[in-house]
Amino acid sequence: MHAYRTHTCAQLRAADVGTTVKLSGWVHRKRDHGNLLFVDLRDHYGITQIVTDSDSPAHAVLDKLRPESVVTITGEVVARSSETVNANLPSGEIEIRARDVVVQSVAHELPMPVFGEAEYPEEIRLKYRYLDLRRERLHANVLLRSNVISSLRQRMIGQGFTEFQTPILTASSPEGARDYLVPSRVHPGKFYALPQAPQMFKQLLMVAGFDRYFQIAPCFRDEDARADRSPGEFYQLDFEMSYVTQDDVFAAIEPVLHGVFEEFANWQGKGRTVSALPFKRIPYRESMLKYGNDKPDLRNPLIITDVSEHFKGSGFGRFASMVEGGDVVRAIAAPNTHEKSRKFFDEMNSWAQSEGFPGLGYATQKDGVFGGPIANNHGQDGMKAIAEALGLGPNDGIFFAAGKAAQAAKLAGLARTRVADQLGLIDDKRFEFCWIVDFPMFEYDEDAKKVDFSHNPFSMPQGEMEALETMDPLDILAYQYDIVCNGIELSSGAIRNHRPEIMYKAFEIAGYTQADVDTNFAGMINAFKFGAPPHGGSAPGVDRIVMLLADEPNIREVITFPMTQKAEDLMMGAPNFATPKQLKELNLRSTAGVATAKPADEAVRPQ
Fold first, then answer.
1. With contact defined as beta carbons under 8 Å apart, do 523 and 557 qualify?
2. Residues 468 and 506: beta-carbon distance below 8 Å
3. Kindly report the CA angle at 445 between 537 and 282, in degrees rounded to 5?
4. Which of 112, 128, 475, 595 has its CA 20 to 30 A from that of 312?
5. Would you state the pLDDT for residue 604?
6. H helical segments located in 355-499
7. CA 140, CA 131: separation in Å to the nearest integer?
8. Which residues pair with 530 in a beta bridge?
9. pTM of this prediction?
């Protein structure tokens, strides 16, 4: 018989009754029923119930063990009585009558229990992450992550992509976030940068003649945490293709994402549906108007409408004067709110003010009669015209966001989401995908008082050189696209600008000289001068994909060892001060402090 186990804790069934087996695992929980002691034994695969009576030597050993101690148990498989069968466990028809117990490891008193799903402070959970990962929900999330990555990899290979690895130690490049820098020991004063993304390397792979590249790529960005963004590092399904149009990129990645989401849509019995292929395409400007942002949640049925024209010369002087001055008014329906009290609408206005906006106007409606200050001033006929434009029913209220176009869009988008949440309009049984396309190539930077890139400077402008030379820069669109699912941006991508002369011109419009381009992007621009194919790609975020499939509100719940919101690893004590010896080797001097402990391999990590 094997030293530790003949079966896992999820394998045994009624057919195994009468056999002698050996199991190893953690003491999940104990239940003392007088003469009988029941122990749930847990391993990576599942749980098996162990039973022992007070006369057995095994009883004395198990009785004094704390939960999470590791044991090896030898015993006989016996059938449970019909009234004690546990239908929730694969092994629920049997139990093991313990004959012999070997204690492999004794657990000290736990800082947090593993049994149960009670919430605990994040600081404790992250400091003792190895315990947190033993809990059923987190353990299942990590397994889901592994299975999703495996599925993504196989589907990409099935689509004709080849997996390559790109460097981790590389040069710093001006991207959207701060770099993590690594000092060089052999080149004093110089630094490597960890890649924010394999962007340039994957484009260089296309220049090198590899047609379809992908990798599950680690990326490093020194940026603040959010619910859908982990500080420090994250993983993405990075891919690039040669000789492709935007349509070709969509046709390649849509079946991969659709297939993965369909494969895991019923994970843990959630029974969700996935939007049909091909995914909906929404131009950027349309998305900003109808949804108030460029990552719309299409499960939300509410659509924002521009009603500025309705208030020109109207009786509601405030909106009328704003529209005359160039501002806009956006409206969001509030369906079937006729039975809501005035408090519901006032609280929405207070919420808007708490978000930093002047306020959120509203009009109530019951049986086709409008109420509230805006309706009283604008008049019933004016309100009915707005209601008709929005397609409202006789008991639907309206919220109004007014101001500069960008500010009104932002408030309307946030209000659209909040109203839908408050009224229970969002269907959580659906995955709704869409592409946001036709991003502006440039935008006007009010702070710098200049035209700058709005999205990705390496994208091909629609119309190429002719557009750059003849159009107003703010009217030029780019072959840039985002893929969005349920209001979460999974990735940005683009058809790349592979022609040096077009790249120089695009950067010139944004205020950069040819020398700037040659200095900052030397590797890529030089490569393009030796024959570069048209190419494009994208990079859906793996962490966000798993977060959606696991139905978790926070990305840290699907990452094995995440950092805190302050980018700290409480378990390993990182970041930490370097020792004087380490600093000397790297020709560095610290202004913040140094470790006073032994060299790094012997240093005591702070708790």
1. no
2. yes
3. 40
4. 475
5. 38
6. 373-378, 380-390, 405-423, 464-470
7. 14
8. none
9. 0.93
